[in-house]
Amino acid sequence: MVVRALLVCVLAAAVVVAAAGARPLATPGVTANEIKIGSSVPLSGEAAIAGSVARGIDAYFNYVNAKGGVFGRKIKFTYLDDGYDPGRAVNNTIRLVQQEGVFAMFSSLGTSNNLAVRKLLNDAKVPQLFVSAGATTFGRDYKKYPWTIGYIPPYSEEGAIYGRYVVQKIKKPKIAVLYQNDDYGRDLYSGLQLGLGKKRSAIVAKVAYDPTSTDVQPQVAQLKASKANVFMIFAFGKFSLQAFNAVSRLGWKPQIFVNDVSSASALMEIVPQSAANGSISIVFGKDPAAPIWRKDKGIRLFQSILKQYGGNDIGARDLKNGFYTAGMATAYTLVDALKKAGRNLTREGIMRAATHLNEKGNPFVLPGIVVRTTPNSRFPITQVKLQRWSKKAWRPFGKLISINPR
Amino acid sequence: MLLGVFTWTEFAQQIVSGLRDGAIYGGLALALVIIYRSTRAINFAQGEMATFTTFIAWSLMNHGLSFWTAFPLVLAIAFSGGVAIERLIIRPVENGPVITIVIVTLGLAVLLNGLMSLIWGGGNRPFHGPFSTRTIDVGGVPISVQDIGIVAVSFALVALLALFFRFTKLGLGLRAAALNRQSSELVGVRVGWMLAFGWGLAAVLGAVAGMMVAPVLFLDPNMMQTVLLYAFAAAVLGGLDSPLGAVIGGLLLGVTITLLGRYVGFVGQALKLPTALLLILLVLLVKPNGLFGRVAVRRV
Amino acid sequence: MRLKLGLEVLGLLVLALLIAVMPRLVDNFTAYEMATVGMYFIALLGLSILTGYSGQISLGHGAFMAIGGYTTAILSVDHGVRDLWTIPIAGLVAGVAGLIVGVPALRLSGLYLALITFGIAVSFRQIPIKFDHFFGGTTGKVLGLLKTPFGLSATPEDWIYYLTWGIAFVLLVVAWLFVRGKPGRTLKAIRDSEIAAASSGISIARYKMIAFGMSAFYAGVAGALYAIARAYMNPDVFPIILSVYLVAALALGGIDSFVGLIVGATIIYVLINRADDVTGWINHLPGVSLDSKRPGMPDVIFGAVLILVLITLRTGVGGALRRAFGPLTTRLYSRS
Q1: What is the CATH number of the domain that holds C92?
Q2: Would you tell me which residues 183-222 of chain A have a C-beta closer than 8 angstroms to some C-beta of chain B?
Q3: Which CATH architecture group holds A155-283?
Q4: What interface predicted TM-score (ipTM) does this complex get?
Q5: What CA–CA distance (Å, rounded) separates C314 from B103?
Q6: pTM for the whole thing?
């Protein structure tokens, strides 16, 4: 009896669904006044600090809306917390696409989270724009996932840059590597190996750490014992801080390379400066805490937008938070793409715009960087500079380096 | 390449790291033990309570107080907080089934964690503790003053507690109340307040543990989450009703886990937590009273 | 007695009707959400048999859900097994894991068992990280997209709803029969007094282990459904806090009441996935203006409500809780 009732209901549901199938042909998430954009980021848990980019994005969209929006349409940006749990990220994404009816997903954070939603977004032909994740696959596998595009340079490329620098500039290098035991750390490491090329054997020690570690001092002690003179810190957040502390405590003085995600000035300022001085990292965005940009128009703009449109509790510390700047940089590119997609905004149109970028005026990235994409080259940021930490500040040096991710 | 070379210097450094991590576990385990002794309960919120009080210390220091000015204030706040929690939340469910107390402390943990996120937000922040980060050279092995300080404080706390329990009237009352409530009441011990005091004391110990540890772990709402499991392991290993056991258990655990993680490729970094869990299980099955615990006498 | 039985059967039928009808009344995504509630409900069902009827505590049931999820992921991604057929296998694998955990559990009293199972919840995720070649590590496994099979013309979301609640209903009936029948009465006897039960010839160990295995089976099924619904699996998909929420929701919803378990499952779902809504509701209170992006508020409310309920309901209305937990005090006298 129950089975029959169930079947009847399934049939009834099918009828309802079929009737609802006669949908109008307008683009979802786009009306005359509004473009709905969605994102899923970690606002709680270990990765919460990275999720703060969404706030920078939000502030920038508020600013753009205040100036009339894009072709008269205001951007309605909805971002949800996923606590870095891919199950939640999937739920958030389906909710945003189906219930909120967003036009596109934008700048969702995390490799595993973006992997989890990639198939379903591509299957539904919903753009997965400018993901905030460093795995190469998001820019590389466009044939299978044409609705997906990355943004930041892949971690493997960053590692390769360090490798090439070591080969060129350091005599008799002996490299020790501390890396986080997941894709993020492993991509950096494999990139390093690629960049070293034939000099791969310069790596004399590598130790992974688990994010549940109390402290990475034992790992650093192990690395120091290898007598390396180069130390690659491919660690996230507090573990990077602990690594610096351990280096200082153990009396080790290698040439340190610290990965971009952990290189925020706010973090570098806290560690013992004797260890931090001389550290090298890459940079492609403008760090609002770096003295070189203090009078820069782009950073001034960033700070005024954040103050006016970033919410009620913006304090002095926030104005120096590079995660917010990174968010604004990405948001700038999205608005650029929306403009290029034209007044008649469709999902195909935004993908076409996103894969034909030639953006020269992004005020939040290093001067000279061109945010460029083609349908076969889907890595928007492919230029970085090296920077060195000294006297409590990051100082970029050298010329822009181009990478060519494959 | 994972195991690397073996040098005695590095081995010594691993032991020092292990001892310091172990002192961290032992510090929190002390608080767990005090609660277990007084209320026969396991406080799943101990880590969050410790982190919360550390956040209060951080806030005070942000408003201009020095560490040593803030320190006694924080201890006082922690003590009153512990007493309040016992009287308001634990007392009503004390005589009930053990699962109720467990869930209540879990609820408290969730509440405190949420409160910390709400008030102070996520993200790591530095905490300037009482120890300098200078390094001294001990027989060719560089050891940080901070590491020595953490281990020393743990032992000092155990010693203080031992003195307190043995030589003060209050301490005696606490021990009596824990051992036999009915008889204690008969001789005039205010058992209710003894239990509350026990929780207050545990909160204070947790606060000290948190403030010692935050410079190393960096302060954020989830700071003590993994530490808590290691602290459980330390407490069980040492004997759930032995303060000295908690600290020694912690040190042993810290060194064992660090050495296993460093020199046994299979354990590596990934399996340190499960190893601690297996250790708890082994101890509970084989020698439930741990290394220093007393065998409980069951009154019929 | 007959009346009570009649009422319970009626209740089950009403539930069946509601399940069948619900997707017609709500939009597609809400059906998907209700499916997730159903998955937590299945896990809570299992947990209620373990804790309510055999008196054993588990703070680690998220781990059994993860075992189910991983079984489904590995079977369907690496071995091409159809997602439907992985569900019972996932349940079995998790059930076996539960039996294994049930062995040392026999020798551990309440507090210690809570400690060990809590340890399982915390350290379980290290296994897929360590053996990443098999489990996929943090990169995880991407399953095939949720699709409606057999040419049925329901949306995938409606499909997972019916699949989940269909299974939930069957498992509910099984649990109901179990509790009302000999096994349930045996467990209650054990729970009330182990000595008396043992002296009447019952093999306590066997029944307690079966309870553990059964509850783990339920959790495994729930985990498999979750993995199918989300089409992805990695160590972060069943976080530590889920195990805490499961036990807490059990206490809140009421161990004896299957309807209470649905309430509990809904609470878990809201806490995990609709926290922003909760903060939004709070903002409607006068004088409160919270940044809904600031996490933490729902946990504060949940923790506070949980504590309040447990404190106040130990007498009177919470008789259900009391009845379920009360007899545990005999076992706990030997709290050592």
Answers
A1: 1.10.3470
A2: 205-210, 212-215, 217-219, 221-222
A3: 3-Layer(aba) Sandwich (3.40)
A4: 0.89
A5: 13
A6: 0.90
